Amino acid sequence: MEFDLSPEQQEFRRTVRAFAEEVVRPAAEEADRREELPTEVVRAMGELGLFGVPFPEELGGQGADLLTFCLAVEELGRVDQSVAVTLAAAVGLGGMPILRYGTEEQRRTWLEPLCRGEALLAFALTEPDAGSDAAAIRTRARPRDGGWVLEGEKAIITIPPESGSKVQLLTVRGLMKPKEDTEEGGGSGSEPPAEGPQPTAPPPAGGGPGFEGAPPGQPDEGGGDEPPPSD
Questions:
Q1: 83-133: per-residue pLDDT in tens?
Q2: Quick one: CATH architecture of 7-118?
Q3: Integer Cα distance of 187 and 44 in angstroms
Q4: pLDDT for 167-202, tens place per residue?
Q5: Domain ranges of the chain
Q6: Model's pTM, two decimal places?
Q7: Top-level CATH class of 119-231?
């Protein structure tokens, strides 16, 4: 097994380290004091192509491996953990589920803007009565009229709109059926049923995608009885 970084990975690490020292570090202390995400830094990360590192080139990414992406997160984390986790969450929690399970249309709709640094993808897991215990969440998704209705409440949104960069898509963690109906009494809720209507993420009228989360500490209400927008 080869443990040394390739020449390309070493050069990439040097590039990100220089970016972290020259762009991220000068803004870190003030952003921490104000409890704000440095939006100009995030935009610069997008311009550098960091949000597209692990995604295929045909989607505008760099087509690099996971280790290369981890190098970017590590170098950013040396000077600002908030900036580092913004990259890790937008890509890992927001983008990767779409890359692995989305349709080709969904990949191009949501991942291409992420790779270009034009938008971020957010993630909603935590609820008032459930944190990282995904099996305890109460949000439910049920099929209706060819789409899906979300019912539930979220307490924290990872990468909320207050980050200053437009949130393109909010990935909501929920169960496809009640916990008591699952074989193990829980369930991850990330996979759609094998049959029936499949989850979609259509952009709203006007061309701009648009699921927005609530600010930290404020609940994000589910869809109730209103059906999601249709294609």
A1: 999 999 999 999 999 999 999 999 999 999 999 988 888 888 888 888 778
A2: Orthogonal Bundle (1.10)
A3: 38
A4: 445 566 655 554 444 444 333 344 333 443 344 433
A5: 7-118, 119-231
A6: 0.70
A7: mainly beta
